[in-house]
Amino acid sequence: MKDLVLIHGRSQEGKNAIELKASWVDAWARGLGKDSLDVPITDSRIHFPYYGDSLFDLTNGSSVDDAARIIVRGAEIDITSASFINRMLEDYVNGLGITDAEIAEELPVDQRRVIQRGIQNLPWVQAALRVMDQRLPGTGAAIALATYDVYIYLTNDRARTYINDGVRKAIRDCSVVVAHSLGTIVAYNVLRDLDPKEVKIPLLVTLGSPLGIRSIREKLSPIKHPPCVFEWRNARDPRDVVALYPLDNVNFDIKPSIINKSDVFNHTSNCHGIAGYFDDPVVAQWVYDAISD
Predict the structure, then answer these.
(1) Which domain of life does the protein's organism represent (predicted)?
(2) What residue numbers bound the domain in which 94 lies?
(3) What is the value of pTM for the model shown?
């Protein structure tokens, strides 16, 4: 039997790490139960590096209510930061097929004639997020906050080092790694730097991953298959706007290629929650087989 490492995403601040870990394991158990299987390892062999409160502090406790404003504030830091956030937000707008006309409809009448795309234009950001919300309630805030959290993680050396160090300590040789949302970026960053002579990961599973977003992929360039990982599998719900693209040869071209499953039906309210990914019976069995092998 192998150890299992679970790497969470955003919006986990203020939660009890033990209870949060249990919610992941419960979801996995439900998925396994659909095929009459049980969790094959004891709780002591399941590791859950928790960084939710640290990320919350580093992002100044940003709430959904000021989702648009925090993007604009973050972009005021420097040109490079503004460029990255702008590209990331526009990647989502374009990927969702949102048009300037749709955004204009959400703007005051006197601002519709000239639309300045980009984060420097707060009304444009707010209008774009409202259009996203019309597609699926809660989507706009989810994308805004995910954008800001990814920006903090990828551009703030202190945040990235602190989070990476905590996750790295939890990963032992021959561990199976399951990561969700922002956690998939953390997992990728940590695993690609590990020495395959010291640590071998038989399976990496990424769930609801934003790694296929062009601006994120470019920030991580050059991308590669983590040398310590034997096999990488990725699952997404096509309705999950955070995981806009599969990690295929178009959106994350590495060798060996990532095995993708893009037909998960995530039953959580925003189609992105871990409970709706880990209780998918196929995903659950991926992890079961790798742990038991």
Answers:
(1) Bacteria
(2) 64-152
(3) 0.85
